[in-house]
Amino acid sequence: MRRIAAIALLGAVFAASAVAQSYPVKPVRIVVPYPPGGGNDLLARMTAQKLGEKWKQTIVIDNRGGASGMIGAEAVAKSPADGYTILLCASPECALNATLYPKMSYDPTRDFSPVTQLAVSSIVLAVHPSLPVRNARDFIALAKKRPGELAYSSVGAGSPHHISGEWMKLLAGISVTHVAYKGGGPQMVDLMGGHIHSGFVALPVIAPYLKSGRVRVLAVTTAKRSPVIPEVPTLVEAGLTGFDVSQWYGVVVPAGTPADITAKLHADFVEVIGLPDIRTRMADLGAAPVGSTAAQFSEFIRSEIAKYRKIVQETRITIN
Fold it and tell me: Which residues touch 174 (CB under 8 Å, ≥6 apart)?
C-alpha cells in the first residue's frame, strides 16, 4: 500500500514538473484592477510584451477597475489556480484595503500566492508655486499658522495618497482639509491650475510636469529618497519620524497554483524587469524595479498590512 502511495506521489511530482516545463500552452490573462493608463496598466503592458515574446503566447491585459482595486482582485482570487490568470496588484488591493474594509470578498494573504514584487515608486507632496513654501517644513509651519485654511488632494478616500495626508497631519499636528479626486489626471489639472493648495501625487503621474514650473515638489513619502528624484528630501527629513508610504506593484496568482508554475512566473518576470529597456521605461514612470522572492514578497505584504492597520487606527480614517 505504501509502495502504491509512493508511486502515485512520484507520478504527481513528475506531472507537475511536466506542466511547468510546457507552461504556457495557451493565452495568459493579466488582470489590472484599474482603468487603462495608470501605473499598474503601463507596467503590465510593458512586461506582457516581453513575456509574450519569450513564451510565444498571447497575453491579454484585462482592465477591471472599481472598488479600490477589489473587483479585479476578487476575479483573480476566484479564478482557476492554473497560472493562466495573473493579478498585477498594487498596495490597496493586496494590503491597504484589508485594514479599511471590515468585509472583503477575498483575503489577500489566504487567497493569493505571491510571485514577486515588481517595482516601487514614491508618492510626493506637491504644491502650486503660488503657495509660499519651499519644503515640507515650510508647509507644516504654514499649516500651523493657518489651521484649517489649507487643503490637500488625493486620488480618492482610502488611497495611499489619502493615508499619506492623514498620517502627515497626525505626526505634524496640523489641520489640513482632504479633497478626494477621481484619479490623478483631474487632481493634477486642479493642482497646476491653483484650484487646490497641495496634493499627494503618485510620482509616475507628476513626473512629466516636474520641469514645467507649474508644480513644486516638497518631499517624497518613502523612508528613503527616490532614485528617480534624489534631490527631493523625504518627510522623515522634515521631522516626521518613521514616515514610509510607497506605491508598489507586484504579481500574485490564485492560491493553490502549482509551485513549479509559480517559480517559472517568478523567474520570467524578474528576468523581464532586469532588461535595460524595461528598466529605462520604468524609471521614466518614476518606478524602481525590485524582483523579490515569493517568500520576501509574502512577508512584505504581511508587514504592509500590519503597518497600515496601525496607521488607520491612529488616524481614525473611515471609508463610507
Answer: 140, 143, 144, 147, 168
Distances (CA, A) of 80 to 17, 33, 86, 201, 205: 18, 18, 10, 36, 34
What's 27-120+246-315's CATH class?
alpha beta
97 burial type by CB count under 10 A (0-12 exposed, 13-18 middle, 19+ buried): buried
Residue pLDDT, tens place only, 105-117: 999 999 999 999 9
- Distance, CA of 198 to CA of 142 (rounded, Å): 12
Inter-residue contact 31 to 85 (CB < 8 Å): yes
pTM above 0.85, yes or no: yes
Distance, in Å, from the CA atom of 50 to the CA atom of 239, rounded to the nearest integer, reads 42
Residues of CATH 3.40.190.150 domain(s) within the chain?
27-120+246-315
Give the DSSP letter string of 201-244.
Answer: EEHHHHGGGTTTSS-EEEEESSSS--SSSTTSPBTTTTT-TT--
- Evaluated on CA atoms 184, 190, 195, 199, the torsion sign reads positive
Distance between CA atoms of residues 318 and 101, nearest Å = 9
- Tens of pLDDT along 130-189? 999 999 999 999 999 999 999 999 988 899 999 999 999 999 999 999 999 988 888 999
Closest CA to 117 of 98, 141, 97, 91: 91
Which architecture characterizes domain 122-220 according to CATH? 3-Layer(aba) Sandwich (3.40)
Q: Amino acid identity of 152?
A: Y
d(CA 143, CA 1) in angstroms, rounded, equals: 75
For cell 521631522, the residue is: 239
Distances (CA, A) of 96 to 70, 85, 130, 302: 11, 22, 33, 10
